[in-house]
Amino acid sequence: MAYVAVFMYIAAMCLHFVELLNNGLALTPPMGWMSWGYYMCGVECETVPEKCLNEQLILSVADKFYREGYQEAGFEYIIIDDCWSERYRGKDGRLKPDRKRFPRGMKFLADYIHARGLKFGMYTNVGKDTCMRYPGSRGHFSTDAKAFAEWGVDYLKVDGCFVENTYLDTAYIKLGHHLNKTGRPMVFSCSWPYYKKFIHHTNADLEQVAHYCNLWRNYHDVVTHWPAIVGIMSYFRDQNNVIRQFHKPGQWNDPDMLILGTNSLTESQSRVQVAVYAMWSAPLLLSCNMNRIKPFEKQLLQNMDLIAIGQDALGIMATPYMLDDALTLWVKRRLPAKGNKYHTFSFALVNVGDYDAFASFSPSEYGADSTDIYTVMDVFSGVYLKNITRKTVLDVVIPPEALEKE
Ligand SMILES: *[C@@H]1O[C@H](CO)[C@@H](O)[C@H](O)[C@H]1NC(C)=O
Ligand SMILES: *[C@@H]1O[C@H](CO)[C@@H](O)[C@H](O)[C@H]1NC(C)=O
Questions:
Q1: Which of 36, 67, 187, 389 has an alpha carbon within 20 to 30 A of 20's alpha carbon?
Q2: How many Å lie between the centroid of ligand 2 and the Cα of residue 384?
Q3: Within a domain: residue 405?
């Protein structure tokens, strides 16, 4: 008898160790669409129909992805953010989708999305209420995890509003455990480091966060204007040394959504946001009315050379080098194209100043070490420019990108 008891104890210990996040998901950064950035708490459907968060909107995004090449380009997750539920849980203790805006429920949406080979995401908060004061998951982790699994959710964004600092450090781990217990693979998107840093003014243990979450928000919500993108780029540049070591397949720092399609960026600014996010191997989540995406934006979002940088299997976040106050060179190591040990490199020069900037560098200064030929490609035009050696000096003029939108 004693022997059996010891054996069971060991089995329980082992279980504890295998309950860590190892769900095999998000091996490349997730790509898709999320409602918040543009639709926010879009509940005023009668008075503000152009910002209505409802079933029709979600179906229309799925149709766009399916019919217009976004799915082929890798856009996959369609994620409903805050404000999807009724104000109160049902008598059975469950969250209920808003009756008017989601009349056929979430399973219906999931089925529609899955039938097109796409994936479905939803949202909750570890606190008692969501950030917009809808019911949150505190005290209901098991019930809610089961509901999300039953509805066919593939991705869960979990916010951290209205809770104590110490609770953040246990809540995400516990909720992740309940998600795992459902048996349904769900990408687990956490906001843990953001709330630690900007609400509670402490630092998250990113090693722990990376252990329990597939992706995590580090910085403020993006808003739909260029200075927000400049702010995100500065933060990720300044924090690069701290965060890049935790960035890898299945574990991603998340700078928040792309703002393309919201008529808030110039063409060059749009190029900067997508390119820099790709250089970071960041999630690429659109948040816009898909009907308002301009042709140049669509071309950018479906530029497979650019997407390939972001989806590179090594998932290495680019390293920044400040060439002057306004000019940053981002350098990313990628999977060796020739299957040898020499990385392919991507370089991105970002000028946030008001004047033309000039850069002069050779790839060898930034780690390119093959003695073979490198072929230089302009990712935006798809043109192979020239063959060089690692020592060749490249001279580049970078026009200012910070121009106000005309
Ligand atoms: C649950 O966790 C185990 C151990 O890490 C993992 O092998 C399994 O894939 C996870 N299951 C789900 C559904 O996430
Ligand atoms: C680079 O070299 C390859 C192999 O010699 C050749 O096929 C290609 O045309 C060259 N590309 C350019 C842009 O010169």
A1: 36
A2: 8
A3: no
